[in-house]
């Protein structure tokens, strides 16, 4: 099921996934399985122990996982309503929009679990750790022959690996999660990890991103509006969003608009 009404502006926030849980029974089922899985919960807990407590970085646990999952589904809805064809459907690895949602949700929720081992190469580590978890969840969620579950699993693992800044996304689905990961940047939740309490360009820019919004556009399907307290926050756009767009298949489908504290449009990038 896709919510049929034309989407309006949505703020990237902690409750972005709740709308979909309430409106879409399949999304609710997938999230329930993810959040009820003890191994997933423990890995996300350990990810934050390493990232936050040991490295002094910002959140990489369940709150971030939920934000990325909800943001990915929002981006998917806009693209679907604009008639954009998803790679997994085009190549026959997914057979329905629910299966596309399954790829997006599992990738989004699990993409940072590699931090439970180490921050270095955590995307590659996470895609390896996730194999048995994804197999277990797909057995419950996807009543298909083993071959079909394997194809979906590999789309998920590939997309997880592609969240690394220097790894190109091979599918539109992987590109959606890659962008959604970077959009969790408001009020100090920047996706360039910064050491808390350390004053540098990373921390100053992160704290100056006030709000991130997603809406349908006119000239392009997706408009990302970023509101800054101070334009020092634009460093996050230069170092995160633009490379993520360049490294995926959303270039030309997304416009980024930057607004200053007074709400004035400062720059627009496509």
pLDDT averaged over residues: 90
Tell me the total number of β-strands: 5
Count of the domains: 1
Count, helices? 11
What's the SSE pattern?
A: EHHHHHHHHHHEEHEE
Radius of gyration: 17 Å
Strands of the widest sheet, in order across it, are 1-2-3-4-5
| Overall body shape | globular
Instruction: Work out the strand percent.
Output: 5-15%
Give a verbal description of the structure.
β3 (222-228), α11 (234-246) and β4 form a beta-alpha-beta unit. The chain has helices at 16-23, 25-35, 38-54, 62-81, 87-90, 97-110, 122-141, 146-161, 172-183, 201-207, 234-246; strands spanning 10-11, 209-216, 222-228, 254-259, 265-269. The mean pLDDT is 90. Helices cover 53% and strands 10% of the residues. It has a five-stranded mixed sheet with strand order 1-2-3-4-5.
What is this structure's SSE topology?
Layout (H helix, E strand, L loop, with lengths): L9 E2 L4 H8 L1 H11 L2 H17 L7 H20 L5 H4 L6 H14 L11 H20 L4 H16 L10 H12 L17 H7 L1 E8 L5 E7 L5 H13 L7 E6 L5 E5 L1
Parallel strand pairs: 3-4
Antiparallel strand pairs: 1-2, 2-3, 4-5
In a few lines, what is going on in this structure?
The chain has one domain. It contains eleven helices and five strands; from the N terminus they run βααααααααααββαββ. Strands 1-2-3-4-5 form a five-stranded mixed beta sheet.
């Amino acid at each position: 099921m896709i919510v049929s009404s034309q989407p309006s502006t949505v703020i990237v926030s902690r409750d972005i996934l709740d709308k979909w849980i309430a409106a879409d029974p399949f999304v609710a089922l997938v999230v329930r399985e993810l959040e009820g899985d003890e191994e997933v919960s423990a890995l996300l807990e350990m990810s934050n122990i390493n990232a936050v407590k040991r490295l002094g970085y910002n959140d990489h646990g369940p709150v971030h996982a939920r934000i990325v999952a909800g943001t990915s589904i929002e981006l998917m809805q806009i693209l679907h309503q604009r008639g954009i064809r998803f790679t997994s459907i085009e190549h026959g690895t997914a057979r329905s929009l629910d299966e596309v949602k399954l790829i997006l949700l599992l990738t989004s929720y699990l993409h940072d679990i590699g931090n439970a081992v180490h921050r270095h190469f955590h995307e590659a580590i996470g895609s390896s750790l996730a194999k048995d978890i994804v197999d277990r969840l797909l057995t419950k969620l996807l009543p298909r022959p083993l071959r079909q579950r394997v194809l979906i699993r590999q789309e998920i693992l590939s997309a997880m690996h592609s969240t690394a800044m220097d790894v190109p996304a091979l599918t539109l689905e992987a590109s959606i999660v890659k962008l959604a990961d970077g959009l969790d940047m408001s009020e100090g939740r920047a996706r360039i990890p910064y050491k808390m309490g350390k004053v540098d360009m990373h921390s100053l820019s992160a704290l100056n991103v006030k709000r991130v919004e997603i809406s349908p556009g006119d000239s392009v399907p997706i408009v990302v509006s970023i509101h800054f307290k101070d334009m020092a926050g634009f460093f996050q756009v230069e170092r995160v969003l633009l490379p993520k767009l360049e490294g995926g298949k959303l270039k030309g489908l997304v416009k980024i608009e930057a607004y200053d504290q007074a709400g004035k449009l400062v720059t627009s990038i496509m």
